[in-house]
C-alpha cells in the first residue's frame, strides 16, 4: 500500500468499508479488519434534549376553566371559576355559599382547567386571596389538597381523573405542587380536602400551571472552505412542535395545532391550524387581516398564507400568485358575478419579494381591499382610487373548515421558504352605523377596524420559554477549527430545569443528525446555559489500497481522519457520505477499532471495489468522532468541511510523490498509473 506523508494510513487502522460498484452506493458493507459493529447513531432522550419549565398561558386556562361549584354571579369579592385564572389576585373563585353551601365533608369543592392539548405537566401553583398587600388573614384558603390529572380529549367533570399528588399548603400564597416526574396531561383539577378556618368552603385567587418543554438546538455545519471566508454565520434556532411555538393571546384565545419553527426575530415558518368558530367569517360581517411576510425563496407557484376552509374551497384566503399578493373571498350569492371566487392583487416589485412586506386585507361586507406596505396598486400621484372589488356578496359557509396560517393541507408554507410575523385579525359587527362609506372611505375603514374587536392576536415571541444566541469563533490559527457556542436563556419568568446534551446538526443542507454536544454544559450565574459544539479539521487525505486488483478494472480508496482525542477516550467514528456535496445520503458507523499511526490516532472509511467507470467521480464524506470527556460523559465533534476525493485525484498525488522521490518502480506507482490509464488519462 502506498502512503503519502500527509496520508499516514496503516493496515491496522480501523476501517469500515463500503462496496462501491456503481456510481451510487449500494447497501452492502464490509470491514477492512473484520466486520465492524453496526449500530444506530446517537439518539436523544428527553433529558438529552434539555427541558425548560414554562407557564401555561392563563388565557387558555381561563377559557377552559372547570369547577364543581362556584359563586356565580359574583357576591362581593367572591365569584366564578374563571376568576382563578384571570391573571389578577384581586378577584377569586369561591365555592358557592349563597344562597346555600354546595360543599361538605363528603362533597369537596374542586377547580381546574384544560390545556387545549396534551402537555408535560410538572408544576401547579396556588395563591389564596388577600384583601390588601399587607393582608395576612388566611381565611378559608385551601389547606389539605389533592391534585388530579386527565389525558381525556374533553376536560370536564366526567373525564377520567388520576390522583398524582396530595399534601398540605402551608402559606397563603406562592404554594407549589411539584411532581417528581412530569406527567402527560390534557387538564387538571385541584380538590380542597379541607380549608383553613372554615371547614370546606374555600377559594383561589390565582392558579398557575407549568409544563416542561424540549429545548431544541439546531446548527448548520460549515460545508466548504471558501478562500478564507467565515463559516460561522449560521444561527441556531429554537424549534417548536405541536403549536408550542405560536399562540393566540387575544382575550378569548383560539388553540392552534401544527408545527412551527420560530426565529430570533419572532417570525415563524411552518403550518398551524385552528377550528375555532371565532375565525369563521361567514356572511357579511366586516373583518381585517394584517401581517408581515417575506420569502426566503420566491415561490414559483401559488402560496396560500392565511385563510379558512378546506383546501381549494376556502371562505377567504390571502396568498401569492404570479408576482402578486392576492386577497380572495368565496361568495355564496349572485352579487359580483355569481357564486365563486373574487380577488384583487397588488404587484410586488422583484427587489421587494425577499424583503419584509406588510400585508393588509379587509372585507367591508360589500367590498374587498388588499394593500402591500399600505399601498394599493391603483393608488397614484393623481388618484385616490383603491384596488377594490365591489358587490362581492356574502362569504360562503364551508363545513368542517379550518383557519390556517402557513398554507392549507396541500400548500404548506414551508414548501416555499416563507416567514410570517405580527399577525392580527379584527372583526366588527357592521359598518352601517359608523358613518363610513364602504365604497370610498377605506382609510376610515382601516382605522375603524383596527379599533374594533381583536379576534386574533398571534404571538411568537417568548413562546418556548427560552431564547438561543449563537456565537461562532475560530479556535486554531493553524487549522480550520471552529466552535459554535450556544447560550440558552430562559424568558418571561420561566426556568431551565434540564440542560441540553444533544444538538441537531444539518450536515449538508438536507440531512440532519442528533449528536452529543462537544463540551460540558455550563450553567451561568444568570441562569442561562452554555452549550458548545466543535468542528475540527480532521481529514488527513485519501489513499489507494493495493488489495483490489491492479487498478486497471477496480481499486479501493480510503479516507483517513486524525481524530484528535486520546486513545482511551475514543468511542467510535462514523461517516455521512454520498456522490454529491449536498446529498450525503448514506451513513456508516464503525466499531471501536482504532490505531496510532505516526503519532496520530486515526480512523478510516474505505470504499472498496471502485470500478474504473467511477474513477473520475468524486466521493464526498463528513466524519464524526464520538468520545468521552474527563468526566466520562459522551461527547462528539465533526469534521469542519465536507471532504472529497476521486480515484483519479489520489492517483495523481501518488504518482507525483513517487516522481519526486524518483520511485517509478514501486507497486504504488504502477497501481496509480493503471488507475489513470483506465480513466483515460495519459499525462
Q: What keywords describe this structure?
A:
Jelly Rolls, nine-stranded mixed beta sheet, 683 residues, 7% helix, eight-stranded antiparallel beta sheet, disordered N terminus, mainly beta, 42% strand
Concise overview:
By secondary structure, the chain is mainly β. It is 7% helix and 42% strand. The strands form seven sheets. Strands 29, 30, 34, 35, 38, 39, 42, 43 and 44 form a nine-stranded mixed beta sheet that branches.
User: How many domains, in number, for the residues?
Assistant: 3
Strand proportion: 35-45%
Low-confidence stretches: 1-45, 226-230, 232-244, 378-386
CA-based gyration radius? 32 Å
Protein described:
The chain is mainly beta and 683 residues long. The protein has three domains: 14-44 and 537-678, no CATH class; 52-213, Galactose-binding domain-like (Jelly Rolls, Sandwich), CATH 2.60.120; 248-459, Jelly Rolls. Helix 4 (647-660) crosses helix 5 (667-678).
Write the layout of secondary structure elements.
Blueprint: E1 14-19, E2 29-31, H1 46-49, E3 51-55, H2 58-63, E4 65-67, E5 78-79, E6 92-94, E7 110-127, E8 142-150, E9 162-168, E10 175-195, E11 203-204, E12 206-214, E13 218-220, E14 238-241, E15 247-248, E16 257-262, E17 268-274, E18 287-295, E19 303-308, E20 316-321, E21 324-330, E22 341-347, E23 357-363, E24 368-372, E25 388-389, E26 403-405, E27 418-427, H3 442-450, E28 453-459, E29 466-474, E30 482-490, E31 495-498, E32 502-506, E33 512-516, E34 519-523, E35 529-536, E36 539-545, E37 554-562, E38 570-578, E39 586-589, E40 595-597, E41 600-611, E42 619-628, E43 634-639, E44 643-645, H4 647-660, H5 667-678
Parallel strand pairs: 1-41, 5-6, 13-32, 35-43
Antiparallel strand pairs: 1-2, 3-12, 3-31, 4-7, 6-11, 7-10, 7-12, 8-9, 8-10, 14-16, 15-28, 16-17, 17-26, 18-23, 18-27, 19-20, 19-26, 20-21, 21-22, 23-24, 24-25, 27-28, 29-30, 30-35, 32-33, 34-35, 36-37, 37-41, 38-39, 38-42, 40-41, 42-43, 42-44
